Amino acid sequence: FLIYSYGDTRAQRYTMTHPVPFFSRAPCWHSHPLTKEFTFVPALTGINCMLYPFLNIFFFVFHTVFTLFNIAGWLFPKTRKLHLVTMLLTAGSWFVLGIWYGWGYCLCTDWHWDVREALGYHDRSDSYIHFLLLKLTGKNFNPQLVENTTLVVFIICFILSVWLNIRDRKKRSL
Question: CB of 156 within 8 A of CB of 149?
Answer without folding.
Answer: no
